[in-house]
Amino acid sequence: MSVDIRINDILTMKKTHPCGAREMLVLRSGMDFRLRCVGCGREFLVSRNKIEKNIKSVFRENDSV
Prior knowledge:
This protein is mainly beta.
């Protein structure tokens, strides 16, 4: 099962980042994701399968149907 995640989506994660924030901004998507923590601004690269297991919800500002 693949989740539709695009650049500039905000992911709410099940677990918190060490800074305490749960929201991550998607900077790059593909086999790996480059994410930026909304709380502290740290950027990191995480594999797709690890991210998809830990997503609680996806927020997209410009959701065009």
